[in-house]
Amino acid sequence: MSEQIAFTRRQFMQGSLAVVSTLHSMPTFLNGAAHAAGPVGQSGTADDRVLVVVQLSGGNDGLNTVIPYGQGAYYDARPRLAIPEKKILQLNQDQEIGLHTKMTGMKELYDSGLLSIVQGVGYPNPNRSHFASMDVWHTGDTRGGHGVGWIGAALDEDLTKRQIQAQATTCISIGQTAPLATHGKKVKAIAFESAELFRWAGQDIHPALGPAYDQINRRGELAPEVTLEVSGGISGGVTGGQAAFVMRTALHGQVASDRIRAAVQAGPQTRFPNGSLADQLKMVAAMIRAGLPTRVYYVALGGFDTHAGQEFPHGNNLRLFSEAMLAFQKELKAIGHDERVLTMAFSEFGRRVGQNASNGTDHGCAGPMFLVGPMVKPGIHGKQPSLTKLDQGDLIYHTDFRSVYAAVLDRWMKINSAKALNGKTYRHANVIRANV
Amino acid sequence: MAINSRLSPLPEADFDQTKAKHLLNRAGFGGTRHQTRALAEMGLHGAVKYLVDYESIHASKLTKLEIDPDNIREFKPKERRDFRKARRSGDNETVKKFQAEIRKRQVQDRQDVQYLIQWWLGQMLITPRPLEEKLTLLWHGHFASRYRNVRDAYLMQQQNHFLRKHANGSFADLAHGIIRNPAMIKFLNNNTNKKQKPNENLARELMELFTLGEGHYTEQDIKQGAKALTGYTLKDNDFKFNKKQHDQGKKTILGQTGQFDGDDFVDILLQRDDCPRFVAYKIYKHFVADVDDQTNGEQTQAMTVINALAQLIRQHDYQLKPVLMTLFQSQHFYDTTIIGNKIKSPTQLMVGTVRMLNTPTRDISIITGANTMMGQTLFNPPSVAGWDGGQAWINTSTLYVRQNVATYFITGKLPFEDDWTSDDVNYDPMFLLDDLEGSRTIQAVVDHLLDLLLASDVHPQRRESLIAAMQEHVDSTVDDPVVVIALLLLITVMPEYQLC
């Protein structure tokens, strides 16, 4: 076995695929696969623009998040749940809009001109089922789509346009499985709950297994010749050479695993609060700092399905959300990456205007979205939907969530949004600054 | 290399144990060497008939799962009135009681669907009729419904029974049955498809995903087809045709005009040439090769085979058994470019690992969790389009889960388990070497296990590196279970193990 034709991890990382192309005559699977797949390039570079999506799962009570404290109807609808005016963090005194008491972090972002709040976001014929509505938000299709998400489709389009190959780390989701939003035809997000799970556990069993595992999964010269013949032998229809594909993925996995685990081992520059969202965003900041070529990160915070006794749990969740968002922004600034990272938060629906008999709120429709970063057009966009003119007790949306996606994709990510939104064009929500 | 795209049968003499292994991998989930040898001895025709004609195989040992049909039910009229009255009058006590009851039932239902997933995986692990499960899985991905939306474990179970009943029967029966399947009606909202306010969801998916494929109909056909399906609803747990909500008027669907109902609509779809072709494509993709979207028009060998299969389906009037018999005996099916070149589904990977190695099945809830992490939650496909399959199964994170799952089966060790010890292995793999003749040299054992676990021959250099890894730790012959376990771990993390 020749050491010269074995790709060490170091070679692979330093030169990326360029190293491979200098080894044309070698019978390696990467050569074969690279030929079959067309031009070789990198997906995303360390200074590309980044989108971080924060999913607030369960249906956030938008009305107790961004609060129209000037309206009597708010207090009428929520005798036990309304936040008293004096406890509200006022944002805009003309519109009489403020934030929940616990959202001091978001207030600070707002005051620094880094926060954009979009009011009354939703979509036509709203679905009040968590899963169905989440599918709508993930696919940009009010029928729930067919398994391709808006981020996945956008990243697919980006690869096609730039004629580059998907990398293992093009899209990273923190969690057990990659959300539907990140499923593309070509791009599939990496998903992991903690970086330590992103490795083969068998190597802990015996010291001899680790090196043997590396041998099996890292070395290019070990490709069966038959798979190269297959990929040459079938044109079109059949995705030939599945072994070559799996081997390439395994090699990319090794590299990504090493990079990600090294990245998150580095501590942050600033202090992060406790909580799962803060932990996730801390990891994201570390990966951004380490220069991963990732275009989209996806994180989530659950617990917003507050049907009963919501006062404390909802306030606590808003605190966790708000503190994490502020800490993340401060960290990005400290590591010098804030200019290239836009953070966007959404929930699958808002909640009913009137509180229920259990001092909670039931599933509703329109709600606010949050965008954070120096590139966002700060302030409150769109009016508070009427609290009295309702659809089955729910707020009526005026801004389609896809017009926010479209603005983020076209104006920030520079990806044609129609390609990600089922061929449709949406008027941009006014959430990105001019000339970014 | 030229690919044999003929559907004519492989010569009997060519059907050896390697081909029998391929047959069992694809028409089932793989198995022990004892099983593949038995299949090889039946001969090609005998082996295929044994797998396809599975009704003759006794299956009474399988466990039954009882799910309370009434756990998820609508409130009775009186209950509904009481609930409403309590809400209006602010009778919090009663409201809370009702809400607690609803929640209790929902919790029970989510538990039930977990049992259902475990039951089906368990069924796949022990069934003597692997093709029955594999076909049911095909139709589950084809006529995909999601528990998350249906939210009724009993209805999901009934749907599984329906798909299972017709799994190797007639596609026409499946298509006719699915428009009156309660879980599907609920999933695609056909219970809101009424004369005055049609809902097009079922009509659209019936054409796009169940029979014709995208692009073989117009939006007008969908609107007209939806009318034919009005009034196809459910009452309690059963299908109900609500005549009052059915649009009796004339419809024009794909050029035909008449007072069509749902069955007429399905018949019109079954008459189209696009339908057998679409079904052939799905069967081919499930059993033969990871083909791309069938609308890639290029006439490749795969497309030639799919078209020939489509003709067979038409010829046999959608009866599936003769089609499967032909496919599993065909020269194309045993072509060297087909064997070992298909990415295992997560289910195939897990069930196959246990069936080939006879490992302990370990903790079933961990296994169902792993299936989700690998992207295939039974009863919860990602959408009505089912699972993409092929390369979509594998990315850098699912690959680690796949490797860790195999490791878990073999050793009982979970990725995050710090207090794991070798006592937890609880698996003696030495029986795998029982039929290894001659001395148990490292080379012989490596070859023996590679032959058991991999679908096709491995490159000599990969074999060498396995042998080299062992030589550092083993003197000459293999007589220690720990060594065999180490080898099993290394073979199951080989990229080739992801293929069958």
User: How would you sum up the major sheet of chain B?
Assistant: 2 strands, antiparallel
Q: For the terminal residues of chain A, how far apart are their CA atoms?
A: 52 Å
> What fraction of the residues of chain B are assigned to beta strands by DSSP?
under 5%
Strand order of the largest sheet of chain B: 1-2
The largest inter-chain interface, given as chain pair and residues per side, is:
A-B, 74 and 80 residues
Q: Report the helical percentage of chain A.
A: 25-40%
Low-confidence residue ranges of chain A: 1-43, 219-240
Give the domain tally of chain A.
1
Helix and strand topology:
The complex is a heterodimer of chains A (436) and B (500).
Chain A: H1 9-15, H2 17-21, H3 29-37, E1 50-56, E2 66-67, H4 72-77, E3 89-92, E4 97-99, H5 104-111, E5 115-122, H6 130-139, H7 150-162, E6 171-174, E7 190-192, H8 209-218, H9 225-233, H10 242-265, H11 276-289, E8 296-301, H12 311-334, E9 341-347, E10 367-372, E11 379-381, E12 399-400, H13 401-413, H14 417-420
Parallel strand pairs in A: 1-8, 1-9, 5-11, 5-12, 6-7, 6-8
Antiparallel strand pairs in A: 2-4, 3-4, 5-10, 9-10
Chain B: H1 17-27, H2 33-52, H3 77-89, H4 92-126, H5 130-142, H6 147-150, H7 153-165, H8 171-178, H9 182-187, H10 201-211, H11 219-228, E1 232-235, E2 238-241, E3 251-253, E4 256-258, H12 262-271, H13 274-287, H14 301-315, H15 320-329, H16 346-357, H17 364-373, H18 396-411, H19 442-453, H20 460-471, H21 481-492
Antiparallel strand pairs in B: 1-2, 3-4
Helix pairs in contact in B: 1-2, 2-15, 3-4, 4-7, 4-16, 10-11, 13-14, 16-18, 18-21, 19-20, 19-21
